[in-house]
């Protein structure tokens, strides 16, 4: 089974929300759609779910047409589950009643009570809520509420799960534990997951592939490793890997930084960035020293983060971010030199 999105666009009046998006998503694949607010990622999810009709292009599940400008299969006829950004729970319904709700649809009218109860028990057990089945939403924590939404989405064993920033309302520590929950559910159900987020860490941690979007268009598609280690556009480099984009001149595999005498040798930078005279360097790829052949700068900010210190360095009026181990401790206004680790380590 594959979900094929072909030349998909969506206009709201004269505003372009989505422009010429194409991707084929494999059976059981976990695809993260990543980008800043307003980039079109939620619009794409709504089109995949049948909540919107495309202005052009199509969505097919195998040979079944899900969406086109002329035809849009109703939501209830698509074999999918949806987890919203908000928990979307009814205050007068228990955990068990929320899980049961999808089974009240007409298509499950002939299912006997014993089978329904088995599915409900299985769904609640899979998300760790068996002992909380009689509680109401106001008696649950944020993580428990999200598990209710997950149970409700997976109870009918849909082929496709659509998730629209499901962890955005949770605190940082709870987000990490819920990532594992979602990965476990993915392995258990084998569903194809389209997961919308603006959080790079979520996408890198969970995705089989990532699709980076900007202004309604696709910037880059690839595995987390490909996106993080080999960005193909300046936006992808800055948004996902937090790369510093140095300006200068490329001479084959050598880059000469414009504000210093620094020369860097690199064989991995893509041609698209070379053509723009950009050299992407992640904050962890720089090393700060007192003297040496590199880019001179001044420490303008430092943040102690436990295992490392995050520095902002002013280099001829341009800010450069560096992540350094705590043993390399520098003070504000220190004059330093930035060198790329591969040159000395």
Automatic annotation (TrEMBL):
Q: Which PROSITE patterns match?
A: ABC_TRANSPORTER_1, ABC_TRANSPORTER_2
Q: Which GO terms describe its molecular function?
A: ABC-type quaternary ammonium compound transporting activity; ATP binding; ATP hydrolysis activity
**EC top class named in words:** translocase
Question: From what superkingdom does this record's organism come?
Answer: Bacteria
One cellular component term from this protein's GO annotations in UniProt: ATP-binding cassette (ABC) transporter complex
Q: Which UniProt keywords apply?
A: ATP-binding, Nucleotide-binding, Transport
Q: Enumerate the InterPro entries for this protein.
A: AAA+_ATPase, ABC_SmlMolc_Importer, ABC_transporter-like_ATP-bd, ABC_transporter-like_CS, Mo/tungstate-bd_C_term_dom, P-loop_NTPase, Transp-assoc_OB_typ2
Q: What is its EC number?
A: 7.6.2.9
Question: Which residues belong to any copy of the ABC transporter domain?
Answer: 3-240
Pfam families for the chain: ABC_tran, TOBE_2
Protein name as annotated: ABC-type quaternary amine transporter
């Amino acid at each position: 089974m594959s979900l094929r999105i072909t030349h998909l666009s969506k206009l709201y009046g004269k505003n372009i929300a989505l422009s010429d998006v194409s991707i084929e998503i494999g059976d059981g694949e976990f695809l993260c759609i990543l980008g800043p607010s307003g980039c079109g990622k939620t619009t794409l999810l709504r089109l995949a779910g049948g909540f919107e009709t495309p202005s052009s292009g199509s969505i097919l599940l195998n040979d079944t047409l899900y969406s086109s400008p002329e035809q849009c299969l109703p939501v209830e006829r698509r074999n999918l589950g949806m987890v919203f950004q908000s928990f979307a729970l009814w205050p007068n319904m228990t955990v068990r009643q929320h899980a049961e709700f999808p089974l009240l649809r007409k298509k499950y009218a002939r299912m006997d009570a014993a089978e329904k109860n088995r599915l409900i028990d299985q769904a609640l057990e899979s998300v760790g809520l068996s002992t909380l089945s009689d509680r109401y939403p106001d008696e649950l924590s944020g993580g428990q509420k999200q598990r209710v939404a997950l149970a409700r989405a997976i109870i009918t064993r849909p082929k496709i799960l659509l998730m629209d920033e499901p962890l955005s309302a949770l605190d940082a520590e709870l987000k990490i534990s819920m990532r594992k929950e979602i990965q476990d559910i993915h392995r258990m159900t084998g569903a194809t997951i389209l997961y919308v987020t603006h959080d790079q860490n979520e996408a890198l941690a969970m995705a089989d592939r990532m699709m980076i979007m900007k202004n309604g268009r696709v910037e880059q598609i690839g595995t987390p490793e490909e996106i993080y280690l080999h960005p193909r556009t300046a936006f992808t480099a800055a948004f996902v890997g937090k790369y510093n984009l140095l300006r200068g001149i490329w001479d084959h595999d050598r880059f000469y930084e414009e504000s210093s005498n620094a020369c860097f040798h690199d064989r991995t930078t893509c041609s698209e960035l070379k053509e723009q005279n950009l050299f992407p360097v992640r904050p962890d790829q720089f090393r700060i020293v007192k003297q040496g052949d590199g880019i001179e700068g001044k420490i303008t900010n430092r943040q102690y983060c436990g295992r490392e210190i995050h520095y902002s360095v002013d280099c001829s009026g341009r800010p450069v971010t560096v992540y350094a181990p705590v043993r390399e401790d520098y003070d504000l206004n220190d004059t330093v030199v930035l060198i790329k680790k591969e040159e000395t380590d």
